[in-house]
Amino acid sequence: MVLEQIIGSILEASMVGRFVSFLKKSEAAEDPVCHMQVDTKKAGGGTFEHQGKTYYFCGPGCRVAFAKDPEGYLSGKKGMKM
Ligand SMILES: [Zn+2]
Q1: Beta bridge partners of 48
Q2: pTM score of the predicted model
Q3: How far apart are CA 15 and CA 11, in angstroms?
């Protein structure tokens, strides 16, 4: 009985741990302007919605550039201008 409880609680703890690490694992999205991988939970440049899709940016500069011409960046016609 007691052993079962201990095993049960260990199993539960490991499952909870796995669930928590799954939740903590942040998603990465590609910055459409500079093609950097951006953490969606802490995108330095914020987000921009275009045609129902959310884009994430590494910095405000990329967001501003994308907002001016989303199609240009999405079609690949435009690159990052330094
Ligand atoms: Zn960028």
Answers
A1: 55
A2: 0.64
A3: 6
Instruction: Compute, in angstroms, the gap from residue 57 CA to the centroid of ligand 1.
Output: 5
Per-residue pLDDT of 19-64, as tens digits, reads 766 666 678 999 999 999 999 999 999 999 999 999 999 999 999 9
Half-sphere exposure (Cβ direction) of 34: Cα atoms closer than 13 Å: 16
Distance from C-alpha of 43 to C-alpha of 20, rounded to nearest angstrom: 21
- What pLDDT, on a 0 to 100 scale, did the predictor assign at position 79? 58
Domain ranges for the chain, please list them: 2-74
Ligand 1 midpoint to CA 66 (Å): 9
Distance 11 CA to ligand 1 centre (A): 42
